[in-house]
Design brief:
The structure holds 2 protein chains of 2 kinds. By secondary structure, chain A is mostly beta strands. Chain A has strands at about 5, 10-15, 20, 25, 30-40, 45-50, 55-60, 65-70, 75-80, 85-95, 100-105, 105-110. In chain A, about 0% of the residues lie in helices and about 50% in strands. Chain A starts with a strand and ends with a strand. The chains are: A mainly beta, B mainly beta.
């Protein structure tokens, strides 16, 4: 069965600093990978997705993620964090059966000025 | 495009009553919708997969008689929490897949969520 691990529960970065959120997955086949962001009390917004092809994926709001098959990772990055990026970030893997998504536990990002 | 709405956005009900939550795809058709539950500071847990015109598929451990799901059309799915109790208080989020194929495999569009508080 597929699973997603986000090792960092909380991360605090200074505004303007770079950011990397870690995500490791377990899946038997080629994974479909997603990053979502959730602001407090809100639903989820898709930041970016990977299905195939170029392993460096560009998303919205200046985010990017790199798929590394050898490390089973799909880490999210942003070169310069803005205060408005403070939110919770979820990595997810899509399963072919039932088109389900399996989510990681999430990483809460705090941005300090 | 690809907007999903939920109604109500929050609801408070008394223990023992039933509550219905609606999930609508506003600008696309969705044969499949998903219902998630999210506890405070936790991830989303899939409750069930709702398929238009057929019975929902529930995840292990989810009581189908307590969480009734109806997917009556290609744009509407409802979740009814029957005989609600305080432990049912949670944030319920729905998502939908785009029938047209614009969305890549596995991609889901999420609603804004419904906060349920049972007193």
């Amino acid at each position: 069965a597929q699973s997603v691990t986000q090792p960092d529960i909380h991360i605090t970065v200074s505004e303007g600093a770079s950011l990397e959120l870690r995500c490791n997955y377990s899946y038997g086949a080629t994974p479909y990978l997603f990053w979502y962001v959730q602001s407090p009390g809100q639903g989820l917004q898709l930041l970016l997705k990977y299905f195939s092809g170029d392993t460096l994926v560009q998303g919205i709001k200046g985010f990017e993620a790199e798929f590394k098959r050898s490390q089973s990772s799909f880490n999210l990055r942003k070169p310069s964090v803005h205060w408005s990026d403070a939110a919770e970030y979820f990595c997810a893997v899509g399963a072919l059966e039932g088109n389900k998504l399996v989510f990681g536990a999430g990483t809460i990002l705090r941005v300090k000025s | 495009g690809a907007v999903v709405s939920q109604h109500p956005s929050w609801v408070i009900c008394k223990s023992g009553t039933s509550v219905k939550i609606e999930c609508r795809s506003l600008d696309f058709q969705a044969t499949t919708m998903f219902w998630y539950r999210q506890f405070p500071k936790q991830s989303l847990m899939l409750m069930a997969t709702s398929n238009e015109g057929s019975k929902a598929t529930y995840e292990q451990g989810v009581e189908k008689d307590k969480f009734l799901i109806n997917h009556a059309s290609l744009t509407l799915s409802t979740l009814t929490v029957t005989s609600a109790h305080p432990e049912d208080s949670s944030f319920y989020i729905c998502s939908a897949r785009d029938l047209s194929g614009r969305a890549a495999l596995g991609e889901q569009y999420f609603g804004p969520g419904t906060r349920l508080t049972v007193t």
